[in-house]
From TrEMBL:
Signal peptide span: none
UniProt keyword terms in alphabetical order: ATP-binding, Cell cycle, Cell division, Cell shape, Cell wall biogenesis/degradation, Cytoplasm, Ligase, Nucleotide-binding, Peptidoglycan synthesis
Protein name: UDP-N-acetylmuramoyl-tripeptide--D-alanyl-D-alanine ligase
Role this protein plays: Involved in cell wall formation. Catalyzes the final step in the synthesis of UDP-N-acetylmuramoyl-pentapeptide, the precursor of murein.
Lineage: Bacteria, Pseudomonadati, Bacteroidota, Cytophagia, Cytophagales
Ranges for domain Mur ligase central: 100-286
Residues engaged in binding ATP: 101-107
Keyword Ligase: yes
Ranges where the Mur ligase N-terminal catalytic domain occurs: 15-62
UniProt source species: Spirosoma utsteinense
Family: Belongs to the MurCDEF family. MurF subfamily.
Limits of the Mur ligase C-terminal domain: 310-427
Pathways involved: Cell wall biogenesis; peptidoglycan biosynthesis
Superkingdom, natural source: Bacteria
InterPro entries: Mur-like_cat_sf, Mur_ligase_C, Mur_ligase_C_dom_sf, Mur_ligase_cen, Mur_ligase_N, MurCDEF_CellWall_CoF430Synth, MurE/MurF_N, UDP-N-AcMur_synth
Length: 438
């Protein structure tokens, strides 16, 4: 069995890390993980044959088969990956900004990276690689050429953020918000608050810096709770409350326009909704803290244009689609629906799919969503998925279509023109597939 130090010296000989033979790059370190479908150990030889320099395995039989001494045996592949990332992180001397939250992590991460990228060689989590596998992979992709890192941390149960903090060891941190997401695994909204609070706990225990949205009463209360419990021999995190500068929302739809009064600038962005303005404020605060000029920060935010099914505004023929189909939960659905309801347009249609991972709160949350939609007076409401039938009680006029295939057919039979259309649902619903039919 290799120690973490021994493993690290092998890692330094490699060009990167891959956990998947479908994505092997020359001279990478292949790490065999066990998943729901496969045992990665069975792919070790294939990884080496495809160009991996070493294969980290936790099956002694696979290691015994040798392959020129290029199989590295550890007791647990996942734990070894995490330990390797933790070790690598300790070699960084630059700031690591860690962020979590129920909603807006990826968008805020992209905005922060765009802003910091104006002054620093910035590494940011690629896509959504934010879990117990993704965070180690993110850390291990960071090289000494960078000057700052932005690491997204996702969770759907307690102690996960604690684990991810032990790997990423953030010097600075941000919780975007605490909302009704992943209620099943967290055990309700109080569980979400506790689970996300593990980031503040880490920053507090290590005397690091925390960025707090002063308008968010939950986040400020979470910070104060930790201030009260801190022991005298430890230093609590430095807290940067934002927004401090006079930046005002001018328009929230179809896209956010804000006014930076201190610098006499109106900034037109590509993102819709007040909630995205909150994400922008976080990026501006972090940029200001790290010395990015307001003009450069505003330009970075104005230029950010999502292509990831999150808050995407797509003009197609005479229709304008707000494609927000990456994920959905009660908080983000409510934010998106309220924002869409406030959008000026002559005809508005919503196509909404199930919200996943709500456990025994699912039925009530879908029903509450129905009541919210009923008060919004949309021209057409289309609901898809098994759970959305609970929203129907308040929406007798809605079209209910249980599966996606039937939804595509329905849309082909009911073409729309001159319409604003909101498309949103959980990842498993994959509602971006409706766009070709609109
Ligand atoms: C383990 C793994 O990485 N699986 C990926 C794999 O899945 P697949 O079903 O094919 O196989 P297995 O998982 O059974 O495979 C075991 C290993 O074998 C490898 N392998 C398989 C076949 C093959 O031909 N060759 C192989 O080498 C395989 O790669 C495994 O190492 O492929 C899928 C398709 O690419 C991947 O989707 C799957 O990735 C899983 C889901 C994963 O966790 N990936 C992380 C790198 C990651 O960060 N993914 C993010 C999504 C993160 C997320 O959902 N975040 C949540 C909050 C966190 C919740 C947390 N508790 C959790 O459960 O994850 C959020 O709300 O944000 C991403 O991909 O975007
Ligand atoms: N500050 C916010 N408050 C509420 N909802 C938000 C906020 N920011 C974004 N959203 C909603 O959440 C959706 C997903 O955004 P984003 O992917 O940035 O969040 P996320 O936290 O990274 O989600 P995930 O972890 O599932 O990737 C957006 O398209 C929007 O509907
Ligand atoms: C895909 C994952 N990050 C996520 O957000 N899951 C929830 C349940 C969703 O898809 O809405």
């Amino acid at each position: 069995m290799l120690s973490t130090e021994q493993l690290y010296s092998k890692f330094l000989e490699c060009t990167g890390v891959s956990t998947d033979t479908r994505r092997i790059t020359p001279n990478c370190l292949f790490v065999a993980l066990k998943g729901d479908t496969f045992n990665g150990n069975t792919f070790a030889e294939q990884a080496l044959a495809s160009g991996a320099r070493y294969a980290l395995v936790d099956d002694p039989d696979v290691a015994d088969r040798g392959v020129g001494g290029r199989c590295l045996l550890v007791s647990d592949g996942l734990l070894a990956l995490q330990a390797l990332a933790r070790h690598h992180r300790q070699t960084f001397t630059f700031p690591v900004v860690g962020l979590t939250g129920s909603n807006g992590k990826t968008t805020t991460k992209e905005l922060i990276a765009a802003v910091l990228g104006k002054n620093y060689r910035t590494y940011a989590t690629v896509g959504n690689l934010n879990n117990h596998i993704g965070v180690p992979l993110t850390l291990l992709a960071i090289t000494e050429q960078y000057e700052i890192a932005v690491v997204e941390m996702g969770a759907n149960h307690q102690k996960e953020i604690e684990l991810l903090c032990s790997i990423a060891q953030p010097t600075h941190g941000l919780i975007t918000n605490v909302g009704k997401a992943h209620l099943e695994g967290f055990g309700g909204i109080d569980g979400v608050r506790k689970g996300k609070g593990e980031l503040y706990d880490y920053l507090a225990q290590h005397g690091q810096t925390v960025f707090i949205n002063s308008r968010d009463t939950t986040l400020t209360a979470m910070y104060r709770e930790r201030l009260k419990t801190i022991r005298s021999e430890t230093t609590f995190a430095e807290a940067i409350f934002y927004p401090g500068e006079p930046v005002h929302l001018v328009q929230e739809s179809p896209v956010v326009v804000y006014r930076d009064t201190a610098h006499d600038q109106d900034v037109t962005t590509h993102l819709p909704g007040r909630y995205n303005f909150e994400n922008m404020l976080a990026a501006l605060a972090i940029g200001q803290y790290f010395g990015v000029s307001p003009a450069e920060a505003n330009r970075a935010i104005a230029d950010y244009n999502p292509t990831n099914n999150r808050s995407q505004v797509i003009v197609k023929g005479t229709n304008t689609i707000l494609l927000d189909a990456y994920n959905a939960n009660p908080s983000s659905m409510t934010a998106a629906i309220r924002q869409f309801a406030a959008t000026p347009a002559t005809k508005k249609v919503v196509i909404l799919g199930d919200m996943y991972e709500l456990g025994n709160e699912s039925e009530a949350e879908h029903a509450a969503l129905g009541q919210l939609i009923a008060g919004c007076h949309f021209d057409v409401v289309i609901l898809a998925g098994q759970d959305m039938k609970h929203a129907l009680t308040s929406l007798p006029q809605a079209y209910y279509i249980p599966d996606k295939f039937s939804l595509h057919n329905w849309l082909m039979d009911h073409p729309m023109t001159d319409t604003h259309i909101l498309v949103k649902g959980s990842r498993g619903m994959g509602l971006e597939s409706v766009v070709p039919f609109l």
